[in-house]
Amino acid sequence: MKTTQLIAKQLRDVYTDGNWTWATLKEKIADVTWQEATTQIYDLNTIATLVFHINYYTHHVANALEGIAFTASDKFAFTHPTISNEKDWQKMLEEVFKDGERLALQIEKLKDTILYEYFQEEKYGSHFRNFCGIIEHFHYHLGQIVIIKKILRAKKA
Known about the structure:
The chain is mainly alpha-helical and 157 residues long. Helices cover 62% and strands 0% of the residues. The chain has one domain (3-156): Up-down Bundle (Four Helix Bundle (Hemerythrin (Met), subunit A)), CATH 1.20.120.450. The protein is globular, with a radius of gyration of 16 Å.
């Protein structure tokens, strides 16, 4: 199996397929309502904001691999569309899972040699660094989502 295929699998594993942490986004948000997703706890980001943020660079890297200009900016990485009902929440989730699979498909099609080449510009580092960084970043924020969900439900009880 090519390294790019292994990286694509690692990406899928954190979205839906299971991994060493025994936590996937699909599992952890399956029962989160739009009200829970948009509820602010203390000064933490909301679950919806974190889900959007997790996907922000996934979306832009996938676009870049499709030949679309890389326009990601940290100043927009936490700014998601308004979620005012379940339909809005489900629409966001559909886009998140679609982008995750889109990036995984693109990564697994790449030749392993591209992993050592710069992603777009030297300042972004290698493709490998970016792909692994997206997965590491995902795990970090997934842990936050799990904790916020527990706090929300403990406050309800």
